[in-house]
Every structure is written in structure tokens, then in C-alpha cells.
Amino acid sequence: MSDAVIEIKNLSLSYKSENTTYEALRNINLTINRGEFICIVGSSGCGKSTLLSVLEGLNLPTSGSVKINGQEVTGPGVERAVVFQSYSLFPWMTALENVAFAVRENSRKTTKITKRESFDIARTFLRRVDLTAFEDKLPGELSGGMQQRVAIARAMACNPEILLMDEPFGALDTKIRDNLQGLILKLWGEEEKKKTVVFVTHDLNEAVLLADRIVFMIPKQIYSIVNINLPRPHSHPSVKESPEYKELYQKLLRLFYNDSSELIYDEGANI
Q: In the chain, pLDDT over 90 holds for what percent of residues?
């Protein structure tokens, strides 16, 4: 029995205006297994976020298909949650209210829960991201890193099977970014049934730290898929200093800056 949770077959996506057609994705094929952590890497404008939007159900393929658990994606679903680079919190709601509201809205499509139950769940997940002391704060009273932790808590509290993350740490400084990378790995690893994560990033170091597999994109297409066959955590000194890690990283650098960049240049995209 296949353990595939996401199956993308011959996926193409084009946008049409009055006089022109713009091809955003071309013939994408990718299978993602249950519990995998996949990072999608590529230059700006290559189609990473567009591909994620198709997985989310906000854009539908021009041709080909995307299936989740064997069912074709025709729109957003409760089995998927998204974390964006922008925190997307309601500014008039506290951290606790933001998470609890998402839990209640998500439950409307399955088994409806009470307002009290939604707040109990929200408190549990704010505790897991170390924000118990800030649950009554408005987003404007929180730092950027704290707001992103609320966004992660909100996504996890809805108990999705699949977590879609679109450069969620891209706007944060290095120290906060490192902390949140560790947090998302901790939450992912703590789950009794690991969530399937598709994480878009332009940061190669971040991809190596997080991923089971790295999907390299050039404009419109997948160029290469690299397995990260290293013991976790990938950041552990014994792993990072090993010959296997150094060999893998050099391979990734060559892909990112040489082979793929030549193709990117041919497509006219900025490097």
C-alpha cells in the first residue's frame, strides 16, 4: 500500500490576460510521503510559492492534477494549514483569541467544538511555542518572532495533516530564525503522527537543516530532487563536521549556483 499523501502529476499552470498567456508552472511531477519534511528551493520568481498555492487549493492546474490521499484538490481543505512570511494575524484579537478563532472556524467543517474548548486548545499550543505569558497580548504588542510563533501555534492547533509553509522565517533576523527553525523541528518531531510539511525557502542552509528531501526549482519546473540522508538533527556538530555532510553541501551548492543558475539565466530570471 502506498504511503503517498500528496501526488502531483504533469501539473502545469498558466495565467491568461487579454492578449497574453503566462506559463507559471510546467509539467511538475512530485510524490510526497506521509510524515516527510520537504523543502522547495529556488530563485525568486521560479514558481515555488505558486506551487504551494496549488497545494493549498487557491490556484487550480491548467492541466495535470494534484491529489491528497487520492482525492483531487479542488480548493482549500481542513487537512491543510498554511503559515506565510507575513504573520496574517487579526490585529484586534489577542494571541489567544487568534488561535482559538482559527480552531473554531476549522472545526465548523468537521465536528463543531465549543468556544471554551477552542480556548483550551489554543492555550495548549501557545504553551508549546512558549507564549503562555503573552496570550493576552495583541499582535502589535508582540515582536515579529513572537507573532510568527502565534501563527505556527494557530496552524498546529487546527491539527492539519499537511503543513504548508511559505518562507515563514524570511523576514526575521538570524537569531530568531534559528530559534524558530528549531521550534518547527521540535513540534514536527514531537507529533505522535508526524505531519507532512512542505516548506518553501530560498535559504540553502535552512533547507539542509530542515528537510528529508530538497526539491530544486528553476523557472516553471523542478530541476532536481536531493535526498538528505543524514542523521537528525542535521545541525548537530558531529553531523555538520562529517565528510558526508560536507560532500552533500557541496553538491547542493553546485546545483544551486551552477547547473540551475545557467538554466535560470536562460529563462531571463534574476539570480
A: 60
